[in-house]
Every structure is written in C-alpha cells, then in structure tokens.
Amino acid sequence: MNLSPLILAIPVYIILIGVELGYQVYKKKVRYRIGDALTNISCGIAEQVTGLYFKLFSIFIYTISFNYLKLFDIDKSWLSFILLFIASDFCYYWAHRMSHQVNLFWNGHAVHHQSEDYNLSVALRQGAFQTFFTAPFFIPLAIIGFPPEFFLFVSAFVTLYQFWIHTENIEKMSWFEFVFNTPSHHRVHHGIDPKYIDRNHAGVFIIWDKMFGTFQEEEEKPTYGVTIPLNSLNPVKAQLVPFRLMFSAIEKGNGLVDKLRIMFNPPGWFPDYAGGFKKPGEVDKSSHAKFEVKADNMLNSYGLIQYVIILVLTSLFLFFGTTLSTIHVMIGITGILVLISIIGALFEQKRWSFYAEIFRLMAIPVVLYLFIPNQLLVLGGAIGFSLVSLLCLFLLKSKFIN
User: Which of 72, 208, 275, 290 has CA atoms 20 to 30 A from the CA of 402?
Assistant: First the structure.
C-alpha cells in the first residue's frame, strides 16, 4: 500500500475544499465554478495515477545519483529533516523557476496555471509530465547524501505546504510574509498581468525570490490563467495542449539551431525573422471573460454525483495500486483517464459524451463482475446505480442532442 503523505492527504484536501466552499457560500462570495473545480481535481487525478509509473523516473535518477555519487552518509534525525526540508524547497524554487523560463519545461507546469479561478481546488491541478522536467534539479540532494526514501518523505511536506496558499479568502499576513510563501504571494504567481508573470516561484520560503530577484508584492487583484487560454474542461487535453503549442512555435524556426533555441528559451521567444520575443500584453480587466459553459442544476448534480463515485474509485486505486499487477495498473490508469475525460465533456455538453456515458454506465456492472464475480450485493448495487444513472442521463438528452 502506498503510504506517501501526498496520498494520505487526499481526503483532507477534499474536506478543506468543501470547507472553503462552505465559507464562501456563508459570505455570499462564491469563487468556485463546478466545471472548473472538477477539472482542476481531474488534472490532479491524471497526475497521480500516471505518477505510479512516471514518478519512477525521478526516483530512478535520484537513487542512481545517491548510490554512485553521494559524498556523505546522512542519518535520519530531526536536524537532517529540517536541513533537507530547507534544501528541498531551495531546489524546488529553481525547478519551478526554470519551469517558467524554459519553453520545454513549461509543458509540464502549464497545466497548473490553466485555471482562471483561484481556490483550493487549483492546488490539485498538476501536470502529469512535470516530473520529467523537475527531477534533475533535486540530484544535488542525492549527491550530498540524503537517502532516496528520506528525500521522498520530506519533500512531500514541501508540496503539502503549498496547498493552503491557493485561496483568495486569506489576505495579507503581516510579519509571516517576510519569510514564508503566503496566499497573497502565490496569487501574484498565478497572475497573467505582465508585472506578475514569472514572479514568486517559492514553495515554502519566499526568501528565495527576494534573494534572486523574482519577488513581486501583490498590488491590484491578479487576472488568473495562462496567456493562451485552454478553453476546455477536458483534463487529458489540458495535459497535451502545452506540447501542441510548443511544437507549433518550433515550426516557425528555420533550421535545427533556431528550433532548439525556441524550445529552450522562455515561452514566447522567437528569432527576429519570426517576430522576436512576444511579450504578454496588458489585461483589459473590464472585458476579460473566463471560459464558461452554462449548465443547469440537473446536469451539475448528475455530473457531481458521478464524479464523487469516480473520486472514490480513484482514491482506492491510488491506495492499493502498488499491490496490483502491471496489467491491472495499466487498465486502471487508462480507465480513470477515460472516465475523467467523459465527465469533462459532459459539462461541456459535447455530443459524443452522451454516448460515451451510456457505454460507461453499462460497463460498470460488467467490469465489477469480472474483477469481483462472487460479490452479488456489490454487483446488484452497481446494476441499480447504472440503471438510475441511465434514466437521469436520458432525461438530460436534450442538452447533448438537439
């Protein structure tokens, strides 16, 4: 069973998102949109399930570096925990900063910035491919001599810290902001206003940005998102679109050298003959509109109920994924990616999603029968759930097929 702090924190994340939403409802200042929030969580799901394999890359290069290049043998203690925590955050700062300043690396991180809202669900929106681009930045910790399992455990707390800073419900935090990253500092990081872009890369300690010249105080409210909006609720598309944009940019380069320069320079960089560097323009806040798909309460309720079931199944898969065979893990990953894509398409009211949802609901009892054939009570419940869901879906048919 995977006992990573990040996996164990999933139920807590969901509870805290519910608490934030409840508080906003109480204050009558709701900053959640159901389609966007569920897409954020779905991107996190995509990152976690693919991470069962993708993160093996980062573990491999860290372990190899530790086994063959380590300078010291560092024992586990409270002092080494604190030192590794600070060092991990320092390496995270540079991995994060380069993820913004190198076009190729941006492909892995852009997903996190695609949401045009700012709430706790955004913290879960992560890029499935980012581990391939950030893993090398932590090799110095292996060379120093921090054991791999110790690094994985301690660095998880650097990630956990960053969950709470994705909120608009906490304003300035006085003296705390001089040393630590806060919601105010991180709101700046998610802004697409020119003065906010590529600022405040810190994970835990904002002092790194102040030391290396990337700090920006929050002034007016940021406009959130990316400069080329995704305009989709499909979490798989969200993972792939940054690569498509990069390859489109590379095509504008003449010759291998310029194509590589486009790939390794900051996003928006082009040779002079292709127009030169394209700086982000000022945001007209009066006319700026978020991507929005109108859905009535019935569709929202249907999608939310189906999503809760998917979320429970995904949590079980993540908890027990390491105990499954390779073929079952591959089937599970593929199935979950398909499920969250269908839910995203349902909220966008895509015609194909109606038929895909019918197939999904009919497949549920069949899949359960194949995997747990003797659990008649579970099978009966699944059949009943599928039938009720199919009835509700056909009541919603007009929203997909006119």
Answer: 290
